[in-house]
Specification:
By secondary structure, this protein is α/β, with parallel strands linked by helices. The protein has seven helices and 18 strands. The strands form four sheets. Strands 3, 9, 10, 11, 12, 13, 14, 15 and 16 form a nine-stranded mixed beta sheet that branches.
Length: 328
């Protein structure tokens, strides 16, 4: 990740990608102008990051790609790649990585102003004579404590400058490996719709759709497609085509890893689709269809089919000095 630089101009700041953006000389007069300024700044930074990511991937600058350069994510990716990582740890780390990527991918979303109330403390209390009260009761702004002694008036401040996401979000996990990314995205978007699409691959042939829970009418503004790995790209491109026919306005693909070849094919076929990645690998094994070094079969590793089980080692809970075998 690029680091920020210090500038002597008090009216300028440096974005994460090193580009300069002017700070407004005066405060915005209304919420709409503040919202527009924030939205324009976000789009400017995203565009620059996309161009840098496209150059890193050897793609055209118009490609809408974001590759995270965060050092913590690089650390987590190493854990996912390791063949010694067992299923429980793999699922947990995949969730952490997905949350990070989802947070970065959602920077293009917009907000609308909304009025809220904020608690600012309590007014003076007085004794309540009903000693038989056993439960908390609320009447308007007056609250009786469970002890029945204190009657407290809650004070609230009306504040019209809150922000709420505009877009309706749909999560599209590709079965089965995409299931491990859903919970993390729901932490970001608790009210998002979830529509599963099941695909399986036959090497040398087009992927086969075996499950589709998209509703007939599209009511979502943005779809986040969840698939841990983009390999030959045939699966992800099939799902993108399905979503475009469904009618969603914006499609975002979230993947932990992608092959350079597969990524190039997606960008050429669907240049309007946004893609957020953890990293890019260069090679694909022709025999297995897996990217190299990759992280193996993400579905098998999530659901305990990789041959590593958390309970295999009976001495795992012993201190190394107490184990029978020597630990280097």
């Amino acid at each position: 990740m690029a680091t920020t630089e210090t500038t002597t101009d008090p009216m300028a700041s440096t974005t994460n990608d090193g580009t300069m953006s002017e700070l407004p000389a005066v405060a915005a007069e209304n919420d709409d102008s503040v919202h527009e300024n924030n939205k324009n700044t976000t789009k400017s930074i995203t565009c620059s990051n996309s161009q840098r990511a496209a150059a890193q991937a050897g793609l055209l600058p118009t490609a809408k790609i974001h590759i995270s350069g965060h050092p913590v994510l690089a650390h987590k990716l190493t854990i996912l790649r390791s063949s010694t990582t067992k299923s429980g740890t793999f699922r947990a780390v995949l969730r952490e990585v997905t949350y990070h990527l989802g947070y970065e991918a959602s920077s293009r979303l917009t907000t609308r102003p909304v009025a809220i109330t904020v608690p600012v403390g309590n007014s003076s209390s007085h004794h309540h004579n009903n000693h038989n009260s056993k439960t908390n009761t609320t009447k308007g702004n007056l609250t009786t404590s469970s002890s029945g002694h204190a009657l407290v008036e809650q004070q609230h401040l009306e504040w019209p400058h809150g922000q709420k996401l505009k877009e309706k979000i749909a999560l599209i996990p590709i079965l089965r490996s995409g299931l491990g990314m859903v919970d993390a995205m729901l932490e970001l978007f608790p009210n998002a719709a979830i529509h599963h699409i099941g695909m399986y691959k036959v090497l040398g042939h087009n992927p086969v759709q075996y499950f589709n829970r998209l509703p007939r009418k599209c009511s979502s503004d943005v779809a986040f497609v969840l698939d841990p790995v983009i390999q030959t790209s045939s699966t992800i491109m099939s799902v993108i085509s399905i979503l475009k026919k469904w009618g969603v306005a914006e499609i975002n693909v979230l993947s932990v890893l992608a092959s350079r070849t597969g990524l190039q094919q997606v960008v050429e076929a669907h240049p309007d689709v946004y893609i957020t990645l953890g990293s890019i690998d260069d090679h694909i094994d022709e025999a297995s269809g897996l990217i190299m070094p990759g992280l193996g079969d993400a579905g098998d590793r999530q659901f305990g089919l990789s041959g590593l089980f958390d309970d295999d080692d009976d001495e795992a809970l012993l201190h190394p000095s107490k184990r029978k075998r020597t630990m280097d």
